[in-house]
């Protein structure tokens, strides 16, 4: 079983780039897919970091994150969006 991280307001964690976290659907970037963790411990490590003082905005995450089973259906919607985006030549195709 795989796992994901959910924020009570932002949605499901997609990953981070250059210190910025991305969340589905809040970030409106379904083409990025969802972050998938093989163990709860792996997901908990990211939660621990996001809630620590090493993170730039720990108060945005403290008490708002949970670990849940990975949502294959939502991830599939994200993959379909990416497929449609590539088929359109990279133009916007709407939301997933």
Quick synopsis:
The protein is of the alpha+beta class and 96 residues long. Helix content is 28%, strand content 24%.
Which tags fit this structure?
alpha+beta; single chain; 4 strands; about 25% strand; about 100 residues
Give a structural overview.
The structure is a single chain. A four-stranded antiparallel sheet has the order 3-2-1-4, covered by helices on one side. The longest helix has 16 residues, at 72-87. The protein has 96 residues and is of the alpha+beta class. The chain has one domain (3-87). The protein has helices at residues 40-50, 72-87; strands at 3-7, 11-17, 20-25, 65-69. The two termini are 24 Å apart.
N/C terminus separation: 24 Å
Query: Structural class of the secondary elements?
Result: alpha+beta
Shape: globular
Largest sheet: 4 strands, antiparallel
Low-confidence stretches: none
The residue-averaged pLDDT reads: 86
Number of strands: 4
The strands making up the biggest β-sheet line up spatially as 3-2-1-4
Number of helices: 2
Beta-strand residue percentage: 15-25%
Roughly how many Å is the radius of gyration? 14 Å
How many domain units? Answer: 1
- Residues in helices, as a percent range: 25-40%
Q: H/E element string?
A: EEEHEH
Topology:
Blueprint: E1 3-7, E2 11-17, E3 20-25, H1 40-50, E4 65-69, H2 72-87
Antiparallel strand pairs: 1-2, 1-4, 2-3
């Amino acid at each position: 079983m795989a796992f994901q991280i959910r924020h009570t307001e932002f949605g499901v964690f997609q990953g981070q780039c250059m210190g910025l976290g991305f969340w589905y659907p809040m970030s409106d970037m379904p083409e990025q897919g969802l972050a998938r963790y093989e163990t709860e411990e792996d997901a908990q490590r990211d939660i621990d970091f996001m809630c620590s003082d090493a993170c730039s905005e720990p108060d945005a995450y403290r008490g708002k994150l949970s670990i849940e089973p990975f949502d294959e259906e939502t991830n599939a919607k994200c993959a379909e969006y990416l497929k449609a985006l590539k088929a359109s030549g990279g133009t916007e195709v709407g939301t997933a």
